[in-house]
Backbone:
């Protein structure tokens, strides 16, 4: 996803001088082609995320489309008030790009795990929250952010995730993509959990459960129509995110369902249960430990279905 | 550009508006407004290239009031030079008003909202950088309080701007030497203050922040050095212009009522 993002941005920026990329002294080897090809549209703000964000706001208020770029929590939490006051309150065309969403930087430890960022960004007025599920979605999301007016948060994973979509999907901000239809249950995924969610759906399907999978690449504004259709048409909804179950995709879907009056028979959020990772390991190891591997997702779904006794 | 006697008259009116607004609103931050009056008057009386009839003129100089709590004086100056009607000043703090207690966007002449300290200089730096990259002619002026120079986020753009040779950027510090809980030298000493800015790569001038001629001269000669951002450290007095408010921490907070209000307005009336 990281590669898809930066390649797409470079292609777009070559034809659009409004685009500037402001990095927080991170992206070695990644942002280098952009820096070399478009030095007039590139800024390294140094290790100073508050200033990076304030500068982006100032440039956006001067006609630029400013992308800030760093990893995990650095471009988000370190400068949260700048994002709120300087970017969101002014409806500035700043795009906050966080590489390493979730536990991408597994062994680097919890300082480098972005596991509450969606909740915080989602709470901010006027903020668009986009978490693409695979490299194709990352490319399409980056393109879509150029014409979008207002602040946006783009949460992407690492380099080298599998391409989940078989072909270029139809992508619209705020509109979920259905990866497979299914009448029994719905798995709604956001961000890099898409591959594991699709794998889990296949395993469940092999065991006789018909699973619909939605890629909810835009967490805010949420595709409420897709959520309510899933609540109407399937027995159960599970949300899957590499994030705390508080305030992220699961929280957003729960809010919609709770207020709609359209209740599925079963609803469960799959993610981190308001915890820091207390163990050391790479991303796939940690995902396995915290129930976010395909097997972990299947297990949670099966236990919940068993408990609900309608399977 | 106004002449100095016109500027002095404007400064007097702005002080009266500020006292009146804060009295009427039962608000605070009068001392912080009064220390900035001559700086604001010099800027809007002649230094800034702005057009009150075309607030969003693309080539206008940008002014950012990072010390957003000094907005009474700022609103008064904007109204006096014609960005909006003087009647608006009566609505300061009122329900349904456009004039909040910290400078807020959406008011003609106001570039950005402020209120949380340590934000403005980064935004101003971004605007100055955009101007450089676009080869635009406008300059960016940012007024900071001394208290907000405690913020680490203030020192990030102080480090950044000289590196990027932003000589179209001017930081003006209203150095009234009193912050929210005491004198700056007691709370968190900024000295040697000018030397710090210089060491970070700024071209610095120090002025008497209540001497209009000194301020206008200093702000008219920027950049002081090609390739360097300019810093004007304006030595000011909190509560300047009203004898019993001058250099008193109390007037960061207190709203003049009753006899205090009358005495303040009488002093401002009596001035030449």
Residues:
């Amino acid at each position: 996803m990281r590669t898809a993002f930066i390649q797409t941005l470079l292609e777009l920026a070559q034809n659009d001088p409004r685009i500037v990329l402001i990095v927080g002294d991170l992206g070695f080897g990644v942002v280098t082609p952009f820096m070399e090809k478009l030095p007039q549209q590139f800024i390294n703000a140094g290790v100073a995320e508050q200033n990076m964000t304030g500068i982006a706001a100032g440039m956006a208020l001067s006609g630029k489309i400013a992308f800030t770029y760093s990893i995990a929590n650095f471009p988000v939490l370190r400068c949260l008030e700048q994002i709120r006051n300087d970017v969101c309150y002014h409806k500035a065309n700043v795009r906050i790009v966080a590489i390493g969403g979730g536990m991408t930087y597994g062994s680097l430890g919890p300082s480098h795990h972005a596991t509450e960022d969606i909740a915080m960004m989602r709470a901010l007025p006027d903020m668009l929250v986009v978490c693409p599920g695979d490299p194709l979605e990352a490319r399409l999301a980056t393109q879509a952010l150029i014409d979008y007016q207002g602040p946006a948060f783009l949460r992407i994973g690492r380099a080298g995730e599998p391409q989940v979509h078989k072909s270029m999907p139809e992508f619209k901000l705020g509109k979920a993509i259905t990866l497979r239809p299914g009448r029994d249950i719905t798995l709604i995924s956001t961000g890099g959990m898409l591959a594991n969610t699709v794998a889990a759906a296949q395993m469940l399907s092999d065991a006789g459960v018909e699973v619909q999978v939605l890629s909810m690449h835009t967490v805010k504004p949420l595709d409420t129509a897709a959520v309510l259709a899933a609540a109407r048409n399937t027995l159960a909804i599970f949300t899957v995110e590499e994030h705390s179950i508080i305030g992220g995709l699961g929280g957003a879907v729960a809010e919609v369902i709770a207020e709609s009056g359209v209740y599925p028979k079963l609803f469960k959020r799959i993610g981190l249960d308001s915890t820091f990772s207390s163990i050391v390991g790479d991303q796939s190891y940690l995902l396995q430990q915290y129930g976010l591997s395909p097997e972990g997702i299947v297990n949670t779904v099966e236990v919940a279905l068993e408990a609900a006794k309608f399977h | 550009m106004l002449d100095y006697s016109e500027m002095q008259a404007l400064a007097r009116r702005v002080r009266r508006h500020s006292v009146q607004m804060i009295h009427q609103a039962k608000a605070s931050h009068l001392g912080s407004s009064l220390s900035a009056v001559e700086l604001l008057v010099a800027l809007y009386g002649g230094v800034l290239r702005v057009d009150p009839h075309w607030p969003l003129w693309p080539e206008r100089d940008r002014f950012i009031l990072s010390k957003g709590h000094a907005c009474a004086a700022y609103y008064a100056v904007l109204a006096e030079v014609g960005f909006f009607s003087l009647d608006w000043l009566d609505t300061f703090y009122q329900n349904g008003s456009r004039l909040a207690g910290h400078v807020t966007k959406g008011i003609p002449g106001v570039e950005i909202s402020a209120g949380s300290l340590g934000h403005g200089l980064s935004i101003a730096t971004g605007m100055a950088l955009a101007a450089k990259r676009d080869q635009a002619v406008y300059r960016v002026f940012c007024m900071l309080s001394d208290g907000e120079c405690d913020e680490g986020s203030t020192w990030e753009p102080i480090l950044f701007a000289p590196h990027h040779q932003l000589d179209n950027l001017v930081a003006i510090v209203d150095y009234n030497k009193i912050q929210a809980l005491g004198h700056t030298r007691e709370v968190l000493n900024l000295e040697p203050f000018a030397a710090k800015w210089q060491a970070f790569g700024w071209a610095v001038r120090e002025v008497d922040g209540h001497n209009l001629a000194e301020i206008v001269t200093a702000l008219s000669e920027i950049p002081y050095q090609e390739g360097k951002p300019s810093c004007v450290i304006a030595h000011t007095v909190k509560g300047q212009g009203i004898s019993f408010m001058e250099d008193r921490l109390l007037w960061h907070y207190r709203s003049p009522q009753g006899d205090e209000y009358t005495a303040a307005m009488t002093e401002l009336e009596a001035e030449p």
